[in-house]
Amino acid sequence: MYLCVNFMVESEDKLSEMRFSALLERLATGESPGREGWRLLLTALSGEQDCRLRRCASEVARRNFGNGIYIRGLIEISSCCRNDCYYCGLRRSNRQASRYRLTADEILDCCREGDRLGFGTFVLQGGEDNAQSDEWLADVVRAIRSEFPERAITLSVGERSEEAYRKFRRAGADRYLLRHETRNAEHYARLHPSAMRLDRRLHCLEVLKRLGFQTGAGMMVGTPWQTVDCLLDDIAFLEELEPEMIGMGPFIPAAHTPLARYSSGSVALTLRLVALMRLRFPGALIPATTALATLDPAGRKAAVLAGANVVMPNLSPLAVRGKYSIYDSKAYTGSEAAESLGLLQRELESIGYTIVYGRGDALSSERRQTDRILI
Ligand code: SF4
User: Fold this and answer.
1) Looking at CB atoms within 10 Å, which of 54, 106, 220, 310 has the fewest?
2) What separation in Å is there between the alpha carbon of 81 and the centre of ligand 1?
3) pLDDT grade, residue 50 (50/70/90)?
4) Is 367 exposed, middle or buried (0-12, 13-18, 19+ CB in 10 A)?
5) How far is CA 129 from CA 43, 100, 102, 298, in A?
6) Looking at 173-267, which runs of residues are DSSP E strands?
């Protein structure tokens, strides 16, 4: 099991117990600790406080979701992308990347398999692939919706026009994941080519919320040049957007990319962010990301014990699973595989949790609870 650690992002004085309790109390009553409060929570916790933070976060998750962990069937529909993000193995300049795109029939077959296995949500994720047009994708969503009316459909296919998002919504998509990765404009500019614009990404998120998607944002933790202030900008943005889903994974370098030689992000810092976001957003859907499980075999369990409540096993056809290589050594076997739910169940049972086979929507604000359990 992942140990609670005492780590310091930057050199800061330790937080007094009294101040720490006051910050937890603010979170418990639904208030933001404010930028300086967040800074202390990110940088100045003792090992013991870090453990207490995670315990509080997992208790809040249990109050809201019981001991159930939602599963999503992840279908990686295309490894082609028109973008060139410096950190991503699928960037268009990477000539070593294996490219594929699934047909509509292949995607529907994946959904049938997912349905047989009991998945309540299908997640269609892919690069920004011009060959998978808005109309084509809307048709695929429509076909899934008509064959599986009870299942939730999540899309994660990047930046598209408002009209495209509207089409997807009308076709029956319920949720949309679009991690912003970093809310700091300078940092964003160091991770992306100039043709990519942070304001466009933020606009997309605003549109998705407005159109009624359960919307997912989130950030990579430990990317090169990320500072504590970058993370504080991320948290401020999440507080403003109030997304239903928050995805956070450690940066993992990908071969043949400009950032290939940089070190991975910190698992401990990612777990702390998971715990903090659980306390700030009690009803949110927060995945134990594959990136965490890739960096640390105990990472998924540690994330659940820090308040994560979603796992996304891979439901893509076996023949392409190794090809969706956004970073090196990405886990897609064992309990990361949709056909190995028994393994995942045993892993979750070992820490007192169980798989939930439902749609697993985010909780509305009326149903969220913190119940002052932190105080
Ligand atoms: S991160 Fe997404 S948008 Fe950027 S290159 Fe990779 S797949 Fe494309």
Assistant:
1) 106
2) 6
3) very high
4) exposed
5) 39, 10, 11, 34
6) 175-177, 214-221, 245-250
Ligand 1 midpoint to CA 323 (Å): 14
Cα separation of 118 and 237, whole Å?
A: 35
- Is the CB of residue 67 below 6 angstroms from any atom belonging to ligand 1? no
C-beta separation of 24 from 55 below 8 A:
no
pLDDT digit string (tens) for 345-362? Answer: 999 999 999 999 999 998
Instruction: Please check whether residue 136 is in contact with residue 332, taking contact to mean a CB–CB distance below 8 angstroms.
Output: no
Q: pLDDT confidence of 325, banded at 50, 70, 90?
A: confident
Is 127 near ligand 1, meaning CB less than 6 Å away? Answer: yes
- The burial of 236, by beta-carbon neighbours within 10 Å (0-12 exposed, 13-18 middle, 19 or more buried), is given as middle
Mean pLDDT of the chain: 93
DSSP H or E run through 277:
helix 267-280
Q: In the structure encoding, which two tokens stand for residue 11, read together?
A: 């050199």
| Domains present along the chain, CATH in parentheses | 66-365 (3.20.20.70)
